[in-house]
Design goal:
Elements lengths: L8 E5 H12 L7 E5 L1 H6 L2 H11 L3 E4 L2 H9 L6 E3 L7 H6 L3 E4 L2 H13 L5 E6 L14 H8 L5 E7 L11 H22 L4 E3 L3 H6 L7 E4 L10 H4 L6 E6 L2 E5 L4 E2 L5 E2 L4 E6 L17 E4 L2 E6 L7 E4 L10 E5 L5 H7 L4 H6 L6 E5 L1
Parallel strand pairs: 1-19, 2-3, 2-9, 3-4, 4-5, 5-6, 6-7, 7-8
Antiparallel strand pairs: 1-10, 10-18, 11-14, 12-13, 14-17, 15-16, 16-17
Helix pairs in contact: 1-3, 7-8
């Protein structure tokens, strides 16, 4: 159990992380590796603590978006292989220096990395080849297989340790046909490329929803981001997981409002009757963005839902506590394992990913294990 907070705090529960890892691991075959995504400060939580726990409990790989994120983990003592999903050439020398593994996703990126690897006198440096099978962000096309093989055959500086792709809509059952086509395309690509390479790298395509919905695409490794942090993109799966992060705060001040009085900037909220409001020290500079204002967002105080009223301020939100028995200094829950970030996010027209990854570094982190 955590203590009642006295300020805004993001609690990071590592036992919940271990629970989620174990649950997702149970969904794949015994020989399937687990890659855990720790980009964006481990989805807005605390990347070093998360990475150390994942290393301790048996993750096979970690993944980050950018080289700087991987460097930070290496400097903190993380020794697991780290895949960099979206590296830029300006950082290739640092990537090699810190023993990170790049995703090569275009002709330019492949050629520039090989040039740096050769200049660094590397042999069989581990690289990952990313294919675009329908999400249309980054990645080689199916037609690039011969080009990739031709360029790789000219150097001994790198070696392909994995071939991978990404599912676009694995959580959407209405897009099952599209997802199956992505899986089929990926299989065709790997069946074409592997004989040309002369060896079999690790194959991976599934994200969290792919793990849960498409067992036929687990291949040699699966990747989980949102899942290890406690969200399964469906209520049935959410019930099996435990959110790792809990955002809590306190009531700073309570106000009594009369009919016609307004709250916050631009008088966006006006009391229709006598009511009571509470001010909480969290705002859009802390990650509670303006989309949650004007009763689209809410918090929980002593077990009761309290809607956010008026516009979200930079450092404060105001909530309607009319009829709620509470006092200044009482704890406020924005989201935790009982009050899902999914619910507040969806009510405001966004997704849990955006809410949890957006919590500002100025919000104190508290690690619970």
């Amino acid at each position: 159990m955590s203590d009642v907070v006295a300020e805004s705090v993001l609690e990071i529960n590592l036992s919940h992380l271990a629970h989620n890892f174990k649950y997702l691991k149970s969904k794949v075959g015994q020989g399937v590796k687990m890659l855990c995504v720790v980009k964006a400060n481990s989805y807005g939580s605390e990347d070093v603590a998360i990475a150390k726990k994942l290393q301790e409990i048996g993750a096979d790989y970690l993944a980050v978006a950018y080289v700087s994120e991987g460097v930070h983990l290496r400097e903190a003592g993380i020794t697991l292989p780290i895949l960099v999903l979206h590296p830029q050439p300006v950082n290739f020398e640092a990537l090699i220096r810190y023993n990170l593994e790049p995703s090569l996703y275009s002709a330019r990126i492949l050629r520039e990395f090989v040039e740096v690897a050769e200049r660094s006198n590397k042999k069989d440096y581990p690289v990952h080849i990313k294919f675009n099978t329908g999400i249309n962000r980054i990645g080689f096309w199916e037609a690039d297989v011969d080009f990739i093989h031709r360029d790789l055959s000219k150097t001994t500086s790198v070696k392909v340790v994995s071939i991978f792709s990404h599912l676009a809509a694995s959580e959407d059952h209405n897009e099952r046909e599209f997802t199956l086509q992505q899986i089929h395309t990926f299989k065709k690509i790997t069946e074409d490329l592997i004989p040309k390479l002369g060896y079999r790298p690790i194959l991976h395509q599934c994200n969290t929803s792919g793990i849960l919905n498409y067992s036929e695409a687990h291949f040699d490794m699966v990747r989980s981001g949102i899942g290890i942090y406690g969200y399964g993109n469906e209520e049935g799966f959410d019930a099996k997981l435990k959110p790792v992060a809990a955002l809590k705060s306190v009531i700073s001040q309570i106000h009594k409002l009369e009919p016609g009085e307004s709250v916050g900037y631009n008088r966006a909220f006006k009391a229709q009757d006598y009511m009571t409001s509470a001010t909480i020290p969290l705002g859009h500079a802390d990650g509670i963005t303006r989309i949650y204002g004007n009763q689209k967002g809410f918090v929980y105080i002593n077990g009761h839902r309290a809607n956010i009223i008026g516009n979200v301020c930079m450092d404060m939100i105001m909530v309607d506590i009319t009829g709620i028995d509470c006092n200044e200094g009482d704890e406020v829950i924005i989201f935790d394992h009982k009050h899902s970030a999914t619910h507040i996010a969806e009510n405001a027209g966004t997704i849990s990913y955006e809410l949890i990854t957006g919590i500002s570094p100025r919000v104190k982190r508290k690690i619970i294990d």
